[in-house]
Amino acid sequence: MQRISHLVGRVFRQREIILRSGTNVRYVVLSSTLQRAVAAAGLGMLVAGAWTMAGHHRAWTLVDLKSHEVARVEEAYRLAIDSLGAAVDGATEAGRAEGASAILALVAQNESLQRHLTEVERRLLSAETERERASANHENLVERLRLLDRQVRQHASKNVELGAVVTSLEQGLTDAMAERGRLAVERDRLARERNALRAEIQELERRQGTLTVTHEQTIAQLSERTQAGIDGLKRVIARTGLDPDRVLAAQTPGGQGGPLVPAVGPDKVHANLVGLGSQIGRLEEMRRLLRALPVGAPLESFNLMSNFGVRRDPFTGQLAMHSGMDLSAPARTPVHSTGGGTVVSAGWNGEFGNLIEIDHGYGLVTRYGHLSRIHVKVGQRVAQHQPIGLVGSTGRSTGPHVHYEILIEGKNLNPAKFLEAARYVSKSQ
Question: For residue 370, what are the CA distances in angstroms to 174, 178, 328, 373, 417?
Fold first, then answer.
């Protein structure tokens, strides 16, 4: 008994089917109980079919028995009729009463036989009905057996396919386990690399923080030095009587503005760099303005005959405004440009006589009057200390000298301040 149970347990052991679709994996479990139930159901259907076929056989046997019984009754009835005929033919007048009694007896027997025949026919009809019902049951059973056979064949085909699928799934599972092992090794390697990268990132962040502090300190130092340079140049330029901020502002029209939003973190470093860049740009503008200033004297050697401001006119003796400086030197002494620029006027100009005007940018213009000879022409670019003409006494003049003027935006400035600032400007350059 134990061997049978062991054999049944081996045949109907629990099975697992793994179905894999893409990244989805499903498990289908065929328990031993389910397999036994399916086998028991099939066996039950086979037993039912056998029992139905046996019942069908018994019904046909009963029909045959009833048919034989009807035949025997019909034969007995035929024999009774024959006896009755014989009795009638051989009867005499003396035996008519007995013949009548016999006839009555035969009639009674005939009626009994009729009743028995009716009962037999009824039973035969019942048997026929039962046979038809058995036949219908047989047809139903045959149809069910055919259906069961188709199902069994389908299940057999599915079992073959399922076996192939199970084999494929087992191979896929083996490959997946191998891939899982490989991925585990790769995951460990990536985890080690990630930890190393994190440590490197932390070190870089620490170094970045240190560099940020160093950059801020360096930028602060450069900003201080740049601002000191700007302030120094402002002081030098201011010695000429010019306001450098106003001069530069006049050259860069437009405006800026907006709400103040303090910068923090990396934005602060960027903002500091932007601010330093602006300071450096401002320092460069100051240097360009300093290089454009017409400092120094237009003559290497001269005598100051008349300063800037109110004086007595040499022709009338009346007080009058002198818009420049009169620097005396021998006739035909070379006259130099006090700064680089572009000649905007070169020729006779009324009381100035032969006059040269040079535009130095930033609204600054220098004038050199009473010249005897002009060596430049309009549009020519001249450098600082470049000879531009010779000393003369043309125009409203009492003798050889140079009338020297400095203007900004058409307003006369005192050239003496530019002469005094020359030594400071040369040191700053």
Answer: 110, 105, 11, 9, 22
**The tokens 């009694």 sit on which residue?**
101
Q: What global pTM score does this model have?
A: 0.49
Q: Which two tokens stand for residue 216?
A: 């801020």
DSSP three-state, residue 339: coil
Per-residue confidence (pLDDT) for residue 208, from 0 to 100: 79
Going by DSSP bridges, is the β-strand pair 334-336/411-413 parallel, antiparallel, or unpaired?
unpaired
Q: Are 347 and 324 in contact (CB under 8 A)?
A: no
Angle between helices 265-292 and 96-238 (to 10 degrees): 30
**How far apart are alpha carbons 249 and 254 in whole angstroms?**
9
Q: What is the pLDDT of residue 292?
A: 87
Decide if 336 contacts 388 (C-beta within 8 A). Answer: yes
CA angle 226, 231, 236 (to 5 degrees): 125
Q: How far is CA 355 from the centre of its chain?
A: 73
Chain center to CA of 274: 32
Residue with tokens 């139930």: 37
pLDDT digits (tens, 9 = 90+) for 31-62: 677 667 766 766 767 766 666 666 666 666 76
Q: Residue 286: what residue type?
A: M
Tokens of residue 413, six digits:
């400035």
At 428, is the secondary structure helix, strand, or coil? helix
Give the burial class of 338: count Cβ atoms within 10 A of its Cβ; 0-12 exposed, 13-18 middle, 19 or more buried: buried
E runs forming strands in 198-323: 303-306, 309-312, 319-322
Distance in angstroms (rounded) separating the CA atoms of residues 80 and 76: 6
Q: Are strands 381-382 and 354-361 parallel, antiparallel or unpaired?
A: unpaired
Predicted confidence at residue 365, as pLDDT, reads 97
Please report the pLDDT score of residue 92 as a whole number: 47
First to last CA, the chain: 120
Name residues of the chain where pLDDT drops below 50: 88, 91-92
- Token pair, residue 89, equals 């033919």
Q: Which residues contact 320 (CB under 8 A, 6 or more apart)?
A: 310, 311, 312, 313
**Which residue stretches of 239-326 are H helix?**
244-251, 265-292
CA-CA distance, 340 to 382, in Å (whole number)?
A: 6
Q: Is the CB of residue 412 less than 8 Å from the CB of residue 406?
A: yes
Contact 366, 337 (CB under 8 A): yes
- Distance, CA of 217 to CA of 212 (rounded, Å): 8
